[in-house]
Write a structure and sequence with these properties.
This protein is α/β, with parallel strands linked by helices. It has ten helices and ten strands.
Amino acid sequence: MDFSSTLPPQVTLVVPVYNEEPSNLRLLLERVALVLEPALIFYEVLFVDDGSKAKTHDALKELADEFDYVRVIVLSRNFGEIPAICAGLAHSRGEAVINMDSDLQDPPELIPTMLQYWREGYDVVFTRQASRKESVPRQFLAFAFYRLLGAFSSVKIPVDAGEFRLLSRRAVNAVCATPEKAKFLRGLIPWIGFKNTIIPFDRDERKFGDSSYTTSKLLQLAVDGLVAFNMQPLYFIPVLGCVILAGGCLGLIFSAFSPQIILGMQLSLVSLLLAVAGAQVACTGVLAVYLAEVLKETRARPTYIVAEEFGKNVVKADHSLNSDGAINSELSR
């Protein structure tokens, strides 16, 4: 398929990459070509190298030299999956932008269905993982994560919907225009609104290599989500304080009018003091988490830094700060 840098592609596939096996990357391109080229869809694959080692970096450069529809953005270090996705969204050129993992757990064969919904007028097409071929602990963490978000979030977040999704151009622009630095996309994209739908699919196993998404990263994602779209812990603190205060007052009243139970009240008082101390520490921890998020935003550090770009159709870029505050290459359109 012949591509021209002067003609924007109809579809951009944004693929964040971190120390991925080269075999997965090449197989991904092959499977994408099998579903898009027969439909004569003009597309590009935009890999975002999130600070990978030389093995992955060299593989991406080789693919960009071999295929004219491949572009690569290299970040200056490992910023994380979400900043890498944001970099890809900011650099995307397609009218429809699909984000997917590089490990082939997101099936490219689902892309035509997603594009069909986009042609019907949907700005956002989520995908829901109907089944997971993962370890039991990771399945439990995922189950608990989405249920907690659903119970406490201020927006309706699709259950079991990951980062495999389609966004229309105006949805991409809306996401990129949001000013927060720490973008929790699984909540932010439902928050922007627009017409949306969801497609269930069975998530595949990794073909090669091991996942770089550790349990600690999953826990950090959960904290980011709960803080970004949930103020209820802050509202709970004064309620808890009132409950403890009321309990203390009742204890004093009982001890004043019933001297015979003073000994029992002494033991109860010790227990109450321990409970109060524990509640204070917990509340301080909640405040510290929210304060840390506020500090991240007020520092206004770049969400990501682009070190280099390569590919046969790299568009000339004006390096400046985008709406994320990121040192980003703003594409000429």
